[in-house]
Amino acid sequence: MILDMFSLQGKVALVTGCDTGLGQGMAVGLAEAGCDIVGINIVEPAETIERITALGRRFLSLTADLSDTHRFASLLETAVAEFGKIDILVNNAGIIRRADAIDFSEKDWDEVMNLNIKSVFFMSQAVARQFIKQGNGGKIINIASMLSYQGGIRVPSYTASKSAVMGVTRLLANEWAQHNINVNAIAPGYMATNNTQQLRADEERSSEILKRIPAGRWGVPADMKGPVVFLASQASDYVNGYTLAVDGGWLAR
């Protein structure tokens, strides 16, 4: 039956940056579909742990700064020791820095690029090696952005990093399909999260954004549940290298 193809019962998903916002929404959605969760965060995700364990799922909390790629091997070893395997990776952790391009600092450039694309590539590499070792394939889901498609303003390193996420998603899909590994991405539209707090606080800018969104509202973390479960499940086995926009129609405008 088709609905059985969306079940993630017995699967283990590693989700980075799931303490709040979209990461939390996706982690909860995956747990609702049957996953146990490994969360890697820079802080203890107390609310996420509570919501997922309330569903009867297990949650392993690992604390790390993901801009330090040297930690990845040991983090995965701990996760596999706890759950025996990894089936799904969601590369969600990311940051944004806002400033005019003419004044943008090298520090802000490097910090964003290190977390938003360098860590995505090397975490994917580490997990793909685990998938190949396990011999059953797996699913990697990267988090792109509307700025994977558009230039934006005052966010040069974020735009560069999220454009790179889309490109790397395609490359990894090309290389790893032979191992039964699907690599796709989700590009959230304008979402009510910490990253957009400044925009939502600016009444004029917020109004301009809402007028452009056919759905007429900011997205919320729960809007990510369906897409991430689809891309993590058997239902998407023939979807590879694709970036799915979850944007209320923004790109169609």
Structural summary, described in words:
With 253 residues, the protein is α/β, with parallel strands linked by helices. 42% of the residues lie in helices and 15% in strands. A seven-stranded parallel β-sheet has the order 3-2-1-4-5-6-7, sandwiched between helices. Strand 2 (36-41), helix 2 (46-53) and strand 3 form a beta-alpha-beta unit. Helix 1 (21-32) crosses helix 8.
Uncertain regions: pLDDT < 50 for 5+ in a row?
Answer: none
Question: Mean pLDDT score, rounded?
Answer: 97
Number of strands: 7
Main beta sheet: 7 strands, parallel
Sum this structure up briefly.
With 253 residues, the protein is α/β, with parallel strands linked by helices. Helix content is 42%, strand content 15%.
Please write out the topology.
Blueprint: E1 12-16, H1 21-32, E2 36-41, H2 46-53, E3 59-63, H3 72-83, E4 88-91, H4 106-134, E5 138-143, H5 156-176, E6 181-188, H6 197-201, H7 203-212, H8 225-232, E7 243-246
Parallel strand pairs: 1-2, 1-4, 2-3, 4-5, 5-6, 6-7
